[in-house]
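Can anyone check this?
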Amino acid sequence: MNFKKLYSWIPSGIICLVVFFLLFGYLASQMGTANMLNTIMNTAHDLLLNTVFYLMAICVITGAIGKVFVEFGVVKMLEKILRPLMKPLFNLPGVASLGAVLTFLSDNPAIISLAQDKRFATYFKKFQFISLTNFGTAFGMGLLVIVFMVGQGYFVEPFVGLFGAFVGCIVSTRLMQRFVVKAYPSFKIEDAATAKQLEEEKLNEYEKPLFQRVLDSLLDGGRTGVDVGLAIIPGVLIISTLVMLFTFGPAAGGDFTGEAYQGVQLLPWIGAKLRVVFEFLFGFNDPHLIAFPITALGAVGAALGLVPNFAAEGWIDGNAIAVFTAIGMCWSGYLSTHTAMLDTLGYRQLTSKAILAHTIGGFVAGIVAHWVFVLYNIL
């Protein structure tokens, strides 16, 4: 039987409906249709009010700080400090450190807007240039993640996670470079941009009065933070709500009442089956915690939305925060951004290789964060 020919006759709409009814049919059979719908709406509403707006506030503040840093040369100073690390660690030219700083202060796509500048691209070979997708993603929304974790009352653990994300970035970037060179050997010697190197433009720092520069930087950066805050709303409300439906359980009495944050506990059941693996790799002491890495695949903002509820349930400890920070930073929703980023660079055909490299890098980030935290506690 020709299965490919048979499959071609099945409309994608039918497959979509089958998956939809299987998914929500299972939830409704466990919770009851009315309770399921009420829980979905109540959870999304509570996430919007108590998580999204909190994240948006952080985005506005960090966006303003980041813009001030750019305006007054702090980013350029950091770039010069970090430049010597680029070649030995990431096999990238020194200017790539600027991309790391910008994505850390904002989000993954910042590396693409930078890469589209011909002056920037002339420093790279093609295989290095393509790996910027993995390199930039590993630092995306880093400041937001760290500030959020500090806001939860943890101070050392987020920086342990930052170190884990750094190591994961090295693994992801170098793996991607290896994959690219293996698939396209000529990319190892071809320049990313054929135009001659352009002289770096000098910023006219005295074009505006000092007060005006500060005010413009704060307002422009804050406006960017609002845009980021709005952009994370779909991820938090849709992905987090769905994940929570499969993470949390019924009310205290064992019944479903339609209140927020109730569910069928499917992910913890899967986590319990694989508990030995996750406990060894990440030090997770509760199966519910696997929901964070799964959610971070699509949106780190949505993954952060899980943390307050995990903390309220008593599932989180310092090790979990360190691992969450590492995985949250390193993955930072790469499944939803890698395709668009590589498409923008003009190398869409390498998306699967980028995703594979970054998946491995994220696991390494979490493992390193866990064992560094264990070492920290011993010392």
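Reply from J.R.: I decoded it. The chain is about 70% helix and 0% strand.
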